[in-house]
Amino acid sequence: MPGWIFVTDFAAGPSTPTCRNCTGGNCDDNLLPELLQQALLTSGYFNVFSPAKPAGKCSHGGSFDRTSRQDPVGGISKDDIGSSHGSLHLKAADLAVDATMELLEDVRLSVGDKNFLRLMGLSQSTVLCFVIDTTGSMSDDIAEAKRVSFNIIDSKRGTQQEPSAYILVPFNDPGFGPLLVTTDADIFKDSINKLSASGGGDIPELCLSGLQLALTAAPPSSEIFVFTDAPAKDAHLKSTVTALIESTKSAVNFMLTDVLASRRRRRSLQDPVSRSMSQSDAQLYRDLARASGGQAIEVTKSDLSLATSVIEDSSAGAVVTVFQVVRNPGRPDNFTFTVDGSLRNMTAYVTGDSSLTFSLTSSTGVSQSSIQSSGPLASFTTVGNLRRLSLNTENQTGSWEITVDSNKPYSVKVTGQSSVNFIFNLVEAHEGAHGDFSLKEGRPLSGGNTSLLVSVTGSDTVKVTEVTLFDSSGPTEVNGSLQSLGSGNFLVTFSGVPAGDFVVRLRGEDSSSTSRSTSTFQRQASTQIKTSSISVTAQVNNTDVEPGSTISVPFTVATATNGVMNSSATGTFTVRANNDRSYALTTPSTIAIAAGGGGTANGTVTVTVPASAASGTDVTLTIEAENAAATDVNYAVLRFSVAPRVTDINRPVCQEVSSSSNCPSSSSLCASSQWEFIANLTDGINGTGIESVTIRQGNGTLNTTTVAGAGGENITVATYSASCCSQNVELTAVDKAGNVGTCVGQVKQSTTAAPVITATVNTTSTGGRTLSMSQSLWICAAVSLLWY
C-alpha cells in the first residue's frame, strides 16, 4: 500500500509460518492466530509462472497467482471487494490513502510548498533554463541572455507566471558547468551576472555536455535555450542528448549567432584565432531542435536582441503547441491548423532561407502574404532565419491555412496560450492480476503495436475525437484506437507503426467554449517519437547509492522484426553509456547476439560514485545500442540518487521550557497584549540534528538558538511570541535526515482567572518510515501545545 514502509522488528521472520488453508473458498480466517497475537506483519507471495513459495507462507491470491494453489491454499489480498480478504478492501484503501497523505504532508513540510508543487508536477509556471557558451567571442550573447532573463524575472516576479525554477549551465572548452538549479531569482541573476567571455582558442566547445546536464536537471517538458556561436566538440553525445530529449519531452531552442559569417574571431590570451561555424556544424543543432520540437534560430550578433522574443513568448503561462511541421528537404506545401475559442496570444514562427515566402488565410477567408509585415491577420518581424508572426485570431475560430513556398529546409510552428492541453507517455501492457500497464522507456518497436497514455488537462468538458501519429516531414499518418479511462485519460493503441519519426497530434471538441456551438480544437506534442528495431532493457535494483560505492546495471539487447522479438536474430551492436555527472563508468564497447543465443545479448555497465558526491545528487545514466550499419539505435534511461545510509529515522522531540500569557478576556483588547512560549527541540544523541524550524501558521515572531545539552546533544531553543489577537501557531521542525515534526500552540482561556494549556506529545512517528504511536500529557500553563 502506498505510504507504508514495514518495520523489520514487526515483520514475520523468513521461517515463521503466517497462513493456513482457506476453507471452502473462504479466506476470512486464514491468518494464523499467533501472527495476530504477536502483531506481526506479513505480505503474500505472488507468481504467474511458478507455484513455489516457502512453507507456511501466505499468498497474494487470485486467478493469476499460481502460489495460491500451493499449501497454504488461498490468499490475503484486498485489491477489491472480490479478493481473498475483500471484506477489508475499503478499510485497507482508507488506510492507504491516510498513510499516503501523511507521507506527502511530511514531504511538503520538509521541502516547502513551492518545491512540493514542483516535485508533484503541479507548478503553474515554466522554468527558465539557459545553457550558455562562455568563450571569448560570446560577450554580446551573454549580455543579451542577461538582459532577456532579467526582464522576464523582473516582469513576472510575484505573479502566477513567475518561473518555478531557474537553471543555468555555462560551457566552454575544456569544461562545462557548474550546474545551478535554484528557485531564488536573485541567486540566478547573480550567477548569470558573473558570467564573462574568455578563452576559446580552438573553435569547438562542449555544448552537448552542458545541454545534457540541463536536460537531466530540468523538469519534464521544459523549454531550454542554448546560446552559442561554435560547433560542438562533443558531437559524439548527439544520440545521448536525443535520448534524453525523448525521455524528458523537453524542447531545446538554439540561439546561433554568425552561423553564416565567413570569418569570426575568438581570442585567446595570446593571439586571435579567426574561424567560422559551417552549415554542417549548425546542422547538428538543427537536428536536435527538430527532435525536441524546438527551433534553431540563426542570427547575427547585432540582431540577437530581436530574436530573443521567443524566450519571452515561451515564459508566458499555459503555452501550447497547436501545430508544428518540418520540411527537410524543403518543398512548397499547404498546412492547416485549428484555432479554438480558448486560444489567446497566438504566435506563428517560420524559419527558413531568406528566399522563403508564405501566405496566411483565416477561417473567414481573409488572406495576407509575406510581403505585408502588418496586415489584417498578423504583424510580423524578420530576423535572421526567423519570421515571428503575432496572429489576430479574434472572432476567427476554425480552420486556418498557411502556405509556404520554398525548396530549401524550413519549419512552421504555431503556439498560443490555453488551459486545454495534453500530455502523453509510452506504456506497455503489464501482465498480472491487475491487468494494468506500465511506463515504457526507450523507443517503440518498428512495425509493432504502440500504446500511449494520453491525459487531457485544463477542461472537464473536452471530448477527444482523434489521436494520430504523423511524420512531420512526410505523408505517413497512423490513427490510434481510443479507450477512455475516465477523468480525461485515454489509452490510445496504434497498430503496425512503421519505421519513422512521428509526433502526436490530438483533435477534439470542447463544449466549454464561449461560442454557442461546440468548439473543435487541435493540439500537438513537440517531441518526436522515433521507432526502432532494437530493444534495450535495463533495471537498477536500488535507486539510492551511497557516496564511494559502485553500482552495477545489467542490460539486455535484442532485435525485433515487424514489432515481434526475433529469437533467431544475430548481430553485433555498438554500446555507449554516459552519465550526466561524468562519474567513472565501465561498459562493453560492443555486444554480440550469437547464433543460438535466443536473440538476446547481455552486458553490464558499472558506475562509480565518488566519495565526495553530495547527498541528494541525481544521476542519469543512458545506455545505447546501435546496429552495425549505424542506421538504428535505441536506449534505456535510468535515474538514481546519491544518498548516505539513513540511520536517523526519528522525528525531532519537543519539550516545553516555559510559557506565559497576558491575554485579556475581551478580544477587543487583544492588540495590546502578548503571549509566548519557549520550547527545546532535540533530535536525540544519535540524530542528525535540527536543520530548520519555521512558522507554518501564525503571525508571531520566531527566534531560534542552539545550545549544548548536558548529554552532549545540541538543543535548538525556539522562542515564539505573538499578539493575543493571533492565538494559534503551528511550527514545523525538520532534521537533517528529513524527518518532520509539527508543533501546534493555542492560547486557551479557562473559566477561572488563569489560562490553561493542553499538550499532547507523540515522539515515535518517523516521517512515514515507521508506524505511529502516541501518548498524552496534561500540564497547566498558558498555551496549548500539540506535537505530532
UniProtKB/TrEMBL annotation:
Keyword Glycosyltransferase: no
Source species: Sparus aurata (Gilthead sea bream)
Domain Hemicentin-1-like von Willebrand factor A positions: 128-301
Record keywords: Glycoprotein, Secreted, Signal
Gene3D superfamilies for the chain: von Willebrand factor, type A domain
Protein name (database record): von Willebrand factor A domain containing 10, tandem duplicate 2
InterPro entries, sorted: GBD_Hemicentin/VWA7, HMCN1-like_VWA, Ig_VWA7, VWA7, VWA7_N, vWFA_dom_sf
Domain named VWA7 N-terminal: residues: 12-117
